[in-house]
Amino acid sequence: MLDINKSDDYLSKGNNTVVCNWKAYLGVQESIDLASALSKWSRENEHSSDIIVSPSHASLYPVAKLLEGAGISLCAQNIDIEKPGAYTGALSADLLEEIRCKYVMLGHSEIRSGKSLGVPEDDSLISKKFAVCMRGKLNPILCIGETMQERSSGKTLEVLKRQTLVGMGKMPDKIPASKTIYLAYEPVWAISSNKTKETAIPDQINKIVTKLLDAVEKESGTNILSRIKILYGGSVDSRNIASYASQSEIDGVLIGGMSTSISKITAMLKEIEAK
Ligand code: PGA
Fold this sequence. Notes:
Elements: E1 17-21, H1 28-44, E2 50-54, H2 60-67, E3 72-76, H3 93-98, E4 103-106, H4 109-112, H5 123-135, E5 139-144, H6 148-152, H7 156-167, E6 181-185, H8 202-220, E7 228-233, H9 241-245, E8 252-255, H10 262-274
Parallel strand pairs: 1-2, 1-8, 2-3, 3-4, 4-5, 5-6, 6-7, 7-8
The protein binds 2-phosphoglycolic acid.
């Protein structure tokens, strides 16, 4: 049985955050095998990174058990509702809290676009899920990112600002002090599964994030920088991880495809630890 009362004080000790987004790549047994291997690595290797793994819904519970005491946090890939009830097919925040899931990803571009679920999720729905996190124990990883078309038409900042401000319910100043808020900037055009993928240049990403934070601060009248951590996501691998993570505004990375094998994850962790 999972010890749901166990303290998770080991979290947020550190420097970089590494989120492994397993999307729907892995089966349940594959997720169990990978979580076991990663837990073993985390126990046996001195490291300062905050590691977060995000398995498919069906794999959450067995993975939660394997991560116990390994210094790794659990993240769901989305939520639907807050409380249990007559909501067939829905995943509730309560259920995630019961298995000591600490984080939930909101607004991943594959969900915003409708690619994952068949139905797109818009900023207003994402902001309702953000509010659920603010009321309960979950900490949101709010994903934002412009498409290639939006980028080509000069709308990058406008899109990111809207996704951030509307996603947070226009009230970053009302975020409870106990919350860890991650903003994951994942340009859609840089994600590895995108057929027309382009490479994101680390210092350009840093400049965009700087402009975004300035704009959000001005608009919300809040020192948002002190309240949130920034992740970069989009084709992160062992060759580029250190250059993204060493940018002044970037606190870590969100990794998709390259996070589904133990040798690739540990190669990236070694690089980020050495930077
Ligand atoms: P990628 O995915 O690392 O495979 O580009 C990132 C993401 O979509 O979260």
